[in-house]
Amino acid sequence: MMSADQNRNHDMSQTDIALLLADAADEVEIGIAPVQAVIRGGRRRRARRWAVATVTALVVAGSTGALAVTGLPGGGHGDRQTNVAKPPASAEARHVYEPQRTELARGTYKGKEWHVTVQVWGAPRNEAEADRQFDAMAELGIEPADARKPADLIGKISYFATRGWGENRPQQVMFNTVEKFEKYSGTDLEAAATRLGYGGESSGRLVIGIVAKTARQVTCHWKDGTTAVAEPTEGFSAHDTGSAIRVVDGFQGANWFVCTGPAGTSYASAEVTK
To answer: Which sequence ranges are marked TM in the entry (predicted)?
Structure first.
């Protein structure tokens, strides 16, 4: 009479023989695509060799692109997914040489169109990328903050709010070069006043600023006692007043706003009112 332990030993021997036969069958299989061979072999050996099958599938996925995950179909451990390292994004994909641009506002002054745009430049990772970015900025007539040489841009994001009028080259108004974006909250606000055209008579009638993403309204006060209200806006229409709050592509932690004032006055202050 056999004991329970003896029965278990006998069963294990039968299982080992079956697994060895399956292994031998896999080794002589001919004419099957590599990925299919991994899956078919893995199904039979999953109970004993799931870790090896996962590693093998990972190698195949990396070399052929035929597997999106490292697990194997059919349940068990093979259903688990493993994160596969993605290749680093190119400088072009990170907007190192060509910035992301968002138009904040537009209008007409003395028969010519004015417009405000925000550019966000991705952080260069090395000197070669920084050199190309520095040259690209120079071609657009903009100068990054606190960057006297290209190497000063490595690992830093640069952004510029520019104002253009007519056919003239846009001029930078608010700009910075930082390692990471600052997060604005509550009534946090930064603003700068500039002119609509290039003459002194429109000085202080255009206000550009940064505000928390939670802000629903910014009120700009002019020296003559009037106000302009900027609220979240998408797109442009013929009814635009030139005042708006907008999301800027690539700019994290805050939104941007613009206010425009009437002729004969200039900027006094701005505040978050909602």
So the answer is: 50-72
Residue 88, in any domain of the structure: no
135 with 33, same domain: the answer is: no
The pLDDT value recorded for residue 124 is 97
How many structural domains comprise the chain?
2
Cβ–Cβ under 8 Å, residues 172 and 160? yes
| Ramachandran sector of residue 137 (left: φ over 0; alpha: ψ -120 to 50; beta: rest) | alpha
Task: Tell me the longest C-alpha to C-alpha distance in the chain.
Answer: 111
Which amino acid, 236?
Answer: F
* Residue 32 sits in the same domain as residue 162: no
- Clarify whether residues 196 and 165 are in a common domain: yes
Residue pair 257/246 in contact by the 8 Å Cβ criterion: yes
Q: How does pLDDT run across 120-141, given as a tens digit for each residue?
A: 999 999 999 999 999 999 999 9
Cα 85 to Cα 7: distance, rounded to the nearest angstrom: 47
Mean pLDDT for each consecutive 10-residue tract of the chain (274 residues)? 37 47 45 36 36 33 33 45 72 96 95 96 97 96 93 97 93 95 96 91 94 97 96 83 94 96 95 97
Q: How far apart, in whole angstroms, are the C-alpha atoms of residue 247 and residue 226? A: 26
Question: Which residue among 19, 49, 79 closes a domain?
Answer: 79
Say which residues have a Cβ less than 8 Å from residue 245's Cβ, sequence separation at least 6. 211, 215, 216, 217, 218, 230, 231, 232, 233, 255, 256, 257
Is 93 within a domain?
Answer: no
Question: Which residue in 105, 92, 273 sits closest to 196, CA to CA?
Answer: 105
pLDDT recorded at residue 149: 95
User: Same domain, yes or no, for 147 and 61?
Assistant: no
DSSP, res 232 = B
User: In the structure encoding, which two tokens stand for residue 107, read together?
Assistant: 């209008």
